[in-house]
Amino acid sequence: MRLSRCRECAEVRVVGVAGGAALPPLLHRVGLRPGVRLRVTGRAAFGGVAVAVAGARMVLDAATARRVGVALVPQHVR
Questions:
Q1: What is the mean pLDDT of each run of 10 residues along the chain (78 residues)?
Q2: Burial of 58 from C-beta contacts in 10 A (0-12 / 13-18 / 19+)
Q3: Which of 32, 48, 53, 65 can pair with 27 through a Cys bridge, CB separation 3.0 to 4.6 Å?
């Protein structure tokens, strides 16, 4: 699934990043790399996605969010 398709409050794990050679290193520097867990904290009208990762919050534009592959993190039943 792509990050751009995730609902608000979803907790996901990054599985990969598609795109040109420059995009993955850029995302890696801001903490978005395979294996990292993040939470979708909001969605923008222009298609952007706000996320919380490693104590930081950031907004990815729609094109970048479409390139980030994620897997849902199962919620534990209490």
A1: 95 89 80 92 91 92 93 79
A2: middle
A3: 32
DSSP SS3 for 75: coil
Tokens of 76: 């534990």
Q: Which amino acid is at 49?
A: V
Report the run of H or E that residue 17 belongs to, with start and end. strand 11-17
Tell me if 60 sits within 8 A of 3, measured CB to CB: yes
Rounded CA-CA distance 5/25 in Å is: 23
**What is the CATH topology of the domain spanning 3-72?**
SH3 type barrels. (2.30.30)
Give me the residue spans of the domains in the chain.
Answer: 3-72
